[in-house]
Each structure stands twice: as C-alpha cells, then as structure tokens.
Request: fold
Amino acid sequence: MLVAGIDVGSLSSEAVILDGEKILSYSILATGANSRRAAERALEEALRAGNISREEIGYVVATGYGRINVPFAHRQVTEITCHARGAVYLVPDTRLVIDIGGQDSKVIKVGPGGVVEDFVMNDKCAAGTGRFLEVMARALETDLEGFSELASRARRAATISSMCTVFAESEVVSLIGQGAPREEIALGLCEAIAERVAAMVHRLGKPQPTVTMTGGVAKNRSVVQALSRRLGVEVVVPPEPQIVGALGAALIARSSLARGVV
Reply:
C-alpha cells in the first residue's frame, strides 16, 4: 500500500505520497488559522495530484508544529527526525541539515541513514525565519521572490545591526529613508540571516560536507550563497526543499507499515 507524510508548519503545510522508493505526488499550501484543516487539504491536494484514492493510503505519519492536530495520522514524529530522514534520502551524503522554517531554525547533525546525532534549535524568536523574511519583504515593498531577486543584484550589503523582527523592520525603513538602495538592504538582511545560522552551526562543531538546506527559506538563493561563504562549504538545496519534512515523515510511515507498527 501507499504511505503519506504530512508536515503541518506555522506558515505552510506539505504532504508527500510514497510508493516504495518513488515519490508519487506532493502538495504545498498555506496553513492558515486551522492546522487540522490544513493537514486535510494538503493530503487531499496530494491525492488529487497523483490521481490516488484515500483508500490506497495504508499509513500516515504527521510532523511539524501542528502534528498533534492531524487526527487521521497513525503516528506523530518530530520535525527534527523527519528533516534528517528526508534530507539524507534526497542527498545521501548529508551530514548536516539546516532547516529554516516559518518561525524557527534548526541545525541537525546526522549520521548514516539519517540518524540524528545532535541538534540545536532556535524556537524562541522568529529572527531569520520565513516570517522574518515576509516582514522584511513587505518593508521593501516586494514579495519573497522579489526579495531574493533584489539581493542577487546588489554589489555590496547594507549593514543590519538587529535581527529582532520589530527592530530590523524599523532599521530597514530608516535605511530606505536615508536613500540606501533596496538591493543592498536585501543583501544585508541575507547576510545577517547567514551570520545567525552559521553561529548555530558552529555550536555543533566545524561543518563537514555535505551540508543540506531545507525549508522555504532555502528557496532564497542569496541566503544560501551567504551561508556557503560563511561556512566555507557548499550548501546543497534539494529540488523542492519545502517538502523534505513531509518526505521524511512518509519514509518513516513506509518503515512503520513494513514492521506492522500500529
């Protein structure tokens, strides 16, 4: 039978449907105010995309901050475990996973097979997360895609002294008022995010290849490039970094189904 993984995050929810080793379909949508409904919609969309019936799904694992609100899941697993499993499945040589989600950041040290060896997490503050970037993009009068494009055109980075979302937004508004180019401000924000995440990485020791980045912020090429420079190693981004947590959940669902775990 087929299996599914559901990742209910603060900003987006994803579903992945697996048939053995093959990803049959996936979905990505905004979580909104109702995480339970978001999980249902994510699975429905993935089923529709793969032309699959609900009855064909033999096991479901839920992850993410809203995992306890997925009543049709057989198991709930932490996103740290799921991102490690999903990253190693997509990039087998992965030894470090950097996941920047909607409202938190995680750095996960992994061993062979995606086993979690150690991790550090910032869930006390939204600095440098997807929510942070949304606020900064709005201050720069663009969207997230435009934010990345702005940063890629900058020749130098403006200095951003605060990573607090509230203070950083005020700083951005002030820089705009002073005539600083939006491109330089955008790049300065990317560099500030990279500096913060690099500090988390170094708490786990010197980064060893391969470093894989997951989560929606991994779609911002300027952040990825800034991280690569600061870490001194290439940061690899899977083709669709936003589904890695749901993929890991689906892989665990596959293992659980094979072992007969209820």
User: Anything to note?
Assistant: The chain has two domains: 1-90+242-262, 92-237. The first strand starts at residue 2 and ends at 8. The radius of gyration is 19 Å. The domain at 92-237 is CATH 3.30.420.40 (Nucleotidyltransferase; domain 5).
